[in-house]
């Protein structure tokens, strides 16, 4: 039979092996959690930047294109048309933001997806109007003898373009003003909610802070005039 000292030596060896394995497991678990946190913080900061990038594209369009014609009755006709609409290269990566769903921030995740859809809608409206102006309005005005860059009689222009085309142009123009203004406000709001959520999940960590310019003016009530 084995002596007690041999049994104790075996037990001590087993305990030491278990302790070493447990320590290695805890270390690896801690390292994995630290890496996961670092990854999620990075994804959160990219999402903040993505919100700002969408806002910045629309804000530049508002200032450069919409504001010169806000509340002007000829906005539907003379608002600038661009062959290439504004774009944003930043997009929210759903796989990187899964941690929001897993950690009780599903509403923030949904809000980010909604903001991207709203942005795409605004860009689609801008693109649709530009296509309409460049491919339908300008050719009809040229055929009717209207000079580009000259003051035009709106009744004469509407007569040359036709009721349907004018109505469509007015509706799209009004929708652009409304959507851009609403998107700018909602992007500000989701930025605040996103940053608060990230600070709640990872207190003491550093997150991007965005300083927005003055808020856009509401609506364009005369766009349908």
Molecular structure report:
This protein has 225 residues and is mainly alpha-helical. The protein has one domain. Helices cover 70% and strands 0% of the residues. It has helices at residues 4-66, 75-78, 98-102, 106-143, 154-161, 163-201. Helix 1 (4-66) runs parallel beside helix 4 and helix 1 (4-66) runs antiparallel to helix 6. The model is unreliable at 219-225 (pLDDT under 50).
Shape verdict? elongated
Q: Supply Rg.
A: 29 Å
Q: DSSP helix count?
A: 6
Overall number of strands: 0
- N-end to C-end Cα span: 105 Å
Q: How many domains comprise the coordinates?
A: 1
Low-confidence stretches: 219-225
Structural class based on helices, strands and sheet pairing: mainly alpha
Helix content: 55-70%
**Beta-strand share of residues:** under 5%
Order of helices and strands: HHHHHH
- What's the main sheet like? none
| Mean pLDDT over the full residue set | 83
List the helices and strands and how they pair.
Blueprint: H1 4-66, H2 75-78, H3 98-102, H4 106-143, H5 154-161, H6 163-201
Helix pairs in contact: 1-4, 1-6, 4-6
Keywords for this entry:
225 residues; mainly alpha; 0% strand; disordered C terminus
Q: TL;DR?
A:
This protein is mostly helical and 225 residues long.
């Amino acid at each position: 039979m084995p002596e007690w000292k041999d049994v104790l030596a075996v037990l001590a060896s087993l305990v030491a092996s278990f302790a070493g394995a447990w320590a290695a497991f805890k270390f690896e678990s801690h390292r994995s959690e630290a890496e996961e946190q670092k990854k999620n913080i990075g994804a959160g900061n990219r999402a903040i930047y993505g919100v700002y990038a969408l806002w910045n594209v629309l804000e530049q369009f508002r200032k450069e294109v919409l504001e010169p014609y806000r509340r002007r009755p000829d906005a539907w006709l003379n608002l600038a048309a661009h062959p290439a609409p504004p774009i944003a290269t930043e997009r929210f990566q759903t796989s990187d933001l899964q941690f929001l769903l897993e950690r009780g921030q599903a509403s923030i995740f949904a809000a980010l997806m909604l903001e991207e859809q709203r942005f795409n809608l605004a860009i689609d409206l801008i693109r649709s109007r530009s296509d309409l102006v460049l491919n339908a309005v300008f050719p009809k005005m040229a055929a009717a003898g209207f000079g580009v860059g000259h003051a035009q009689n709106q009744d004469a222009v509407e007569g040359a373009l036709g009721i349907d085309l004018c109505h469509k142009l007015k509706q799209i123009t009004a929708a652009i003003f409304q959507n851009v203004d609403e998107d700018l406000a909602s992007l500000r709001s989701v930025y605040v909610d996103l940053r608060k959520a990230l600070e709640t999940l990872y207190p003491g960590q550093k997150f991007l802070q965005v300083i927005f310019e003055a808020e856009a003016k509401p609506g364009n009530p005369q766009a349908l005039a």
